[in-house]
What does this fold into?
Amino acid sequence: MSNTIPISLLELALINQDSNAKETIEKTKELAQHADNLGYKRFWLAEHHNMAHIASSATVVLIGYIAGQTKNIRVGSGGIMLPNHSPLVVAEQFGTLETLYPNRIDLGLGRAPGTDGQTAQAIRKDFIEQSQRFPQNVAALQDYFSIDNAKASVRAFPAEGTNVPLWILGSSMDSAGLAAAKGLPYAFAGHFAPRQMIQAFEFYRENFIPSAFLKQPKTIACVNAIAADTDKEAEILSTSLYQMFKNLITNNRVPLQSPVDSLTDFMNDMSEEARFHVNQMTACSFVGSKEKLAIDLKEFIEYSKADEIMISSAIYDHQDKLKSLSLLKEVMDSLN
It folds into this structure.
């Protein structure tokens, strides 16, 4: 296998049962430092709103905090939901981050609101219009970061000339075409919407137009991954992930739940409809010992042709999560 398949981490800053936002942000910092020491390539944070059990609503603030607490790892957004924001302000924010932490900031851009419809309207009244203007707003961002924007009447300081890398994020086919047309790197949210990932990657590669930013296609596959000493132990840890998705589809807004003893029993207790949706959302999940994960991830990388693997790990216990990150890095190193 190629030795160019890095591993990165998408962190949702999930608040556990019996925890709070302050403790979660402290744990998020420790995760980032651990990933940094292990040699993970990126640490991305996701933008969500009106979710009591996710601590990353002020995504830019958290990115700055994490970047300041780490040394080498790239820190960024997975993603900034662009229809929620003015491109000018996003450019100013990420230009400032890049100025503070040179060559370590990524700007992943999404089209969805990262919340429910009512909250999206509370964030921005013209959200629907702005979501339809996503391509134009990406172009505006590129202009603000460009040195050529020095002649414009509206300029983004200190963003101008920093050329922060932009990534297009997707969970369906929609964004693959935009990423390809603009010659930008493309990250797919296989950790919750894996169904179209392979098709989207293929479309992106086939239609990619080289740009000043990128000469050939570049993809990140974001997947769920949980590692432990044994397959059984990892499966038990994964029950927190499955509970999270069940709660999501049934709109049961609770913190991340502690593991249960049997994944099989948990799945069997669901309604047929709920089980179908949970299985669909978790179809790109890698759970097990190092030995099992080495086989499964090797097969996935060869099948998906992903250039980078980004993992999301909804693990309840902090120490279990730190250990999982270590084991997963060992697995990826063994494949390279």
Remarks:
- The chain has a mean pLDDT of 95.
- The chain is about 45% helix and 15% strand.
